[in-house]
Structures are given as structure tokens and as C-alpha cells.
Amino acid sequence: MNRRIFLKKSFLLNSGFWLGRKYALAGSNAKAKVVIAQNPAVVNRHQVQSDQLLALLDKAMQAYFDCDNPLQAWQKVVQPDEVIGLKVNCLSGTGSTHRELVDAVVERLKEAGIKPYNIIIWDRLNKDLEECKFQIRSRGRQVKCFGNDLAGFHPRLQVFGQAGSLVSRIVTDYCDGIINLPVLRDHSIAGISVALKNMFGAIHNPNKYHLNTGDPYIADVNAFPVFRKKIRLTIVDALEAQYHGGPAFQPQWRWPFAGLIVGQDRVAIDCIAWQIIEEKRKQKGLPPLKQENREPHYIITAGDTEHRLGFVHKEKIETIYL
Amino acid sequence: MKSYIDSLPNKKQKFTRRQFLTAAGSACIMLGLPALPFPKGSSLKAAGNDQRFVREARFYEKLSHKQVRCKLCPRECVIDDHERGYCGVRENRGGTYYTLVYARPCTYHLDPIEKKPLFHFLPGSMAFSIATAGCNLNCKFCQNWQISQVTPEQVDSYYLPPDKIAEMAGDYRAQSIAYTYSEPTIFYEYMFDTAMAGRQKDVKSVVITAGFIEKEPLKELCKVVDAIKVDLKAFRQKYYSEIVRGELKPVLEAMQTIVEQGTWLEIVYLVVPTLNDSEKEIRDLSQFVKEFLGAEVPIHFTRFYPQYLLKNLPPTPVSTLERCKAIADAEGLKYVYIGNVPGHSAENTYCPDCGQLLVARTGFLIREMNIVNDKCPKCGTRIPGIWK
Asked: How many domains does one find in chain B?
């Protein structure tokens, strides 16, 4: 093979690879699925009805995984003997992830073969969890519950884009998989705080990433390999959502959405959540988030070619309403 | 440029055996000092909810819906209930803003003042140095990120109230207390009260800061401290936005405020290859210092080493530092030093008028101190600084 032939062949091979890749992406039928399950009976005068909630969760899981019963659906998320972390959001006291939702998920995980002591309910600090009536427990054979302050952070710095952080040992060392349980709510800086932003509770320096409405930091943090690998499912607690004044709990701006949003594509979930909050704000006569200079652009960044965390475009998201 | 560098004394200076042993001995003593026994009970690992470390912040305003706006640094974070500011050490609790690091240092150490570096402030003296967790910036090259980029709960801390710090400084015969390592702006209340306590025991206070602080708290601080060293990160906003996550203008204003208040100021400029070392930038900086702060304000061009999130660049070549010094000298600055290059002749202080060697340094060691009554012994020129 002379030099000319070698160069020609290399060029053709390269062109073929890139063209093939381009068409493969363009022609891909891959879509994100997001299930929105609602039932007004699930919240009655700010009280969550546990039996109704469990039924709603089952319905949403079956629809998402296209299964006949909830057990089959959960078996697609976890394997027996795995350690599963439930990342709740306890930052807003009353406006945090509902205890009843966590209980429902724990019940189904146990049925799917996960040992109680292999389930870890966690968030930033023990004190945050205690304020939400969770009991701190790091030993024994019951379900465990503790914060990053007890577990500590893995000393290796995770770096992506503009973000450099230590990640909680709960993610890096203890858990095989994470189930993300954020809340549907407005955020005074980042626009909304739902699936992607909930991972700020898993790093040591979230206070550094609220500049520029969290863009690109929230996307960057979610792009850490450890999160890509371990987050299995997101179930958004939209039982009582908040359309303004978040993330602090402001009862005057909450509304009973009485639902759950289930999916595995955090970007697609956040797109839907953004849409829901904007619609509610419009209904209540509030300006769009963009007008308040807090459009959650980090969601779009998370879906770009650099991050590839999920789908942003409407036509790429299959939304199922129950 | 070449002829200027050629005119500098030789970089490498030979040590006698005696000088080497003295330096090595001093270093060993300094390293060993923090291990000296403290009275039992003076140190205590800090717990997250320990109320002893929680004090209402001095500079903030209350907003509606339990929000607060911090007025300590130019970032002016607006913080929701239960949330913290960018610094990670101040928290909104039900609409009242608190510092969580009062009397909560995560480290203390006895350092030579030259380490800060402060070259015109009690040369050869020791500074009892403290820091808490947290910082209001996020420099990609931070060498102390394990304490500056964390929250108080993420590091072991001690309970050391201001009186205790002043007492310990006195016990170690430190002539000053240095607020350093992380960013003292964020533990302002603790620093302020400690400086007051130090004064009562005749111990001075020096602040090692990035100068990203509001005017009002800075003016108050200048009343109780004796010297401030500002880490000027660059002379371009772009660098502040991308590498430091801060703003240049408030830092320049802070340095002017320090000079106006009559507090001793020295500037450190960490020269990062390709990012803040252009001739134009150094010239602009030198002109600013001369015009707005004064030609007698010392400036230290220090060497960068790859750290934290900026590991893709090499250490600053010594020739770059020499070029920076040459530019600043040419612009008329009188005390221009090169730092992080032990043994370099530009660590020494020379009389700007007659060229007499005034203070000879090697690293943190003072080899000669020739200033007499604040003046050059040869020509009598007054040398600015705090010499006793």
C-alpha cells in the first residue's frame, strides 16, 4: 500500500464512520418516556392517603415499564441483594419529599427482593432528615437513614465541565443504585428544582453552583460518571407542588397536583416539570420564569451534545397521562 | 528586557554550613510548634448544630417571605429560608441570617509572616494563623480547596473563641494573628472580635484576603487590623469570571479603601501561565497600582503550581515572573517581589533610591535586616511598612 492509497482509504473509512454516526442519530427512534399519574383522592386536606398513593405508584410503574403487575416493574429497576439509595429532598421541611411516598417505595423494593437493611434513605444532613420526621439509623437490620454528614464524601474529586465536586460516599461506596425522589417545585435562583437539581444534595459544594441560574453547573454535576451509572429511576413527588417562592416551603404558593411523575430520563422529566410549573404560574397570573431571569436553561444544557443526559425536544418525549 | 534581568544579582546564592543548619533548624521548630500541648478542653470537634458557633451575621438585610440579602461581600446573595450563601458558612434560619463558623477554626498554625507573604510587616516575626471552612470565591487553582471549598460540617473544627486565640498567640510569642488559608471575609465576625481581643493583649492582626468584600464591613475591619494582604487574581474581568468566579472591580475598590483607611497593604499576584501573564495586563495593573494605590505599595508576583481544577498548566517559568517584575519596576513601582521561588534575589528588599540591600530573605528566612528606624541606613530614605 502506497501513501496515496493509504490516505484515500483512511479518508473513506473516516467519512463512512462519521456519516454512519450522523444517520444513526438522525434515524434513531429512541424516545424518553415520562409517566404523569394523578389522582385527586391521594391528597386530602394536605394529608396524603397512603393506600391511594401506593395504588397510584403501582399504576405509574406498570405504565412506565409496561408490566402487568408492580413487582415485575420493580424487578426491572433493582436486583435482589443490591443496596439501593433513596435520594429524598428534605430541604424545605413541610415541602419536602413525603414520608408516605418513601414508605411506598420501600415497601415495593422489599417485595422486589431488596433487604430492608440494604435500603438507604438519604439526603445532605441528618438534621434535614430529622426535620422531615425520618429517624436516623445507620446500623441494624432495618431500613437505614442518614445524611452525607454521617457518611462523608469520597476523596476523589469528580470533574466535568465547570463543576468539580466530591460525591457522597452513599453514592460512590454504599449503593449499587439510586432512586431519585425529588419534589416538584419552583426555585428562586434556578427556576425549578426537580430531578436534575436534586443531585446537588449528593455533592459537597452545591453552594458554589447557583451562579447563572445553575447553568451549566447542574448539568455538569449530573454528568459525573457515578451519577450516570447509578441513578436508575426518578419518581417526582408532585403530591403537593409549589409554583413560586421555592425552594423554601411557602404554603401560599403550593397546590395539590396530587400526582407522581415517573421516568428514567431526568432531562425529559425536568422538561415536563418546567412546563407544568409554567402553566400553573400563568394560570395564577405570574410571569414566565424567563421574565424573572431564572429560566432553567440548565435543562437544555443537560440535553446538549456535550452532556447527553437525556431528551429535551417535545417530539422525543413520550408523555403518558394516567 | 534582557539587560534589566542581567542587572539583577545572581539567583543562586551559596549558603554556609551554619546558615543551612540555622534555616533547617528553624523550619523544624516551626513544624513542631503546633504539636505543643494545648490545655485539655480548648479544642473540640465541632458539631453541625452546636450553637456556640452560631452568631447572627452583622451585615445583611431582611427581605419579604423570610428571604435575606447578605451584605458582606459583593456577591450579595439572596438566600431563602434554610439555604446558605455562596460561601457555604452563612445560613438563613427563618428569615434571620447566621454565621456558622464563629469561634470554629478548622486549622491553626504558627507561620513566619513571610509566608503570608507580608514583607514590610515585622520581618522575621511569627503569625498565629487561623482559618475556618468556606470561601466566597471558587478559584480553579486553590491550594487549600479541602478547607475553602467545603462547609463547616465537612471538616473537623475546634472551639476556640477570640480570647483563647489571643491568649494562644501570646503564649507562642506570635506578634500577630493572621486570618488566612481560606477567605477571612466569610468568618468576618470571628475575625473582628479576635482582632479586638488581640489588641488587648498587644498582638497585631493581619488579614490575608482576596479582597472580595463590601466597603462598609471593610472600613469597619480596617479599624481593628494592622495589615491586609490582597490576592489580586488578575487584572481582567474575564479571568475573574472564568477562573475565580468573582468580580475584579470590587477588589480594586477594596484595595483603594484599605489605602484610604491607612491600613498597611501588600498585593500578591499569582502569575498563571497564559491566563493572566500578558505584558499588557501586567502593565495595566502596575499603572493602576501606581496611580490609585501608590508606588510604595509592595507587589509580589508569585509562582503558580498546578492544583485543584487547574492541572493542565505548567508551573510559572521564573523568566515570566522576572518579566512581570521588570514591567512593574519600569512603571515605577518601588517594591516589586518575586514569590514561590526560594533563593531568588527578588525576595530581598532594596532601597528604591540607592539600591542598598535592606532585608535579605531566603524563602521564609530573614538573613539580614538592615532597616534602622524605618529608614535605609545608607541614604536615609524612609521605607514604608510596619517595622516594630
From this structure: 2
Cross-chain residue pair B78–A250, CB shorter than 8 Å: no
H or E element at residue A277: helix A266-283
In chain A, the N- to C-terminal Cα span, in Å, equals 63
Residues of chain B contacting residue A205, judged by C-beta atoms under 8 Å apart: 88, 138, 149-151
Q: Does residue A65 belong to any structural domain of this protein?
A: yes
DSSP string of B71-122, one letter each residue: -SSTT--EE-TT-B-TTSSEEEETTEEEES-TT--SEEEEEEGGGTT-SSBS
Residues of B with CB under 8 A from a CB of A: 48-49, 65-67, 78, 80-88, 138, 140, 149-151, 153-154, 245, 308-309
Determine, for residues B151 and A159 on separate chains, whether the beta-carbon distance falls below 8 Å: no
Pick A247's closest partner by Cβ from B66, B80, B149.
Answer: B80
The per-residue pLDDT for range B296-308, each reduced to its tens digit, is 999 999 999 999 9
Q: What is d(CA A121, CA A144) in angstroms, rounded to the nearest whole number? A: 6
The residues of chain A scoring below 50 in pLDDT are: 17-27
Say whether both B122 and B78 belong to one domain: no
Alpha helices in chain B (DSSP H): 2-7, 17-32, 145-148, 162-171, 188-200, 215-222, 237-239, 248-260, 279-288, 318-330
Domain annotation covers residue A5: no
- Residue A21, domain member (yes or no): no
Q: Can you tell me the distance from the alpha carbon of B52 to that of B33, in angstroms, rounded to the nearest whole number?
A: 27
Whether residues B245 and B286 fall in one domain? yes
Residue of B10 and B292 predicted with greater confidence: B292
Please give the Cα distance from B113 to B94 (Å, whole number).
42
pLDDT bracket for residue B203 (50, 70, 90): very high
The answer to whether A127 contacts chain B (CB < 8 Å) is: yes
pLDDT above 90 (res B103): yes
Antiparallel, parallel or unpaired: β B227-231 and B264-271: parallel
Per DSSP, what are the bridge partners of residue A119? A84
Can you tell me the distance from the alpha carbon of A281 to that of A275, in angstroms, rounded to the nearest whole number?
A: 10
Q: What is the helix (H) or strand (E) element at residue B362, kind and residue range?
A: strand B357-362
- Cα-flanking dihedrals φ and ψ of residue B313, to 5°? -115, 150
Query: Which of B71, B99, B127 is the endpoint of a domain?
Result: B99
For residue A272 the three cell numbers come to: 415536563
| Domain of A193, in residue numbers | 31-321
- Cα A30 to Cα B180: distance, rounded to the nearest angstrom: 54
pLDDT tens per residue, range B22-72: 555 555 444 444 433 333 333 344 445 578 899 999 999 999 989 999 999
Judge if B61 and B109 occupy the same domain. no
Q: Is A207 on the interface with B (CB under 8 A)?
A: yes
Q: What is the rounded CA–CA span in Å between residue B321 and residue B204? A: 31
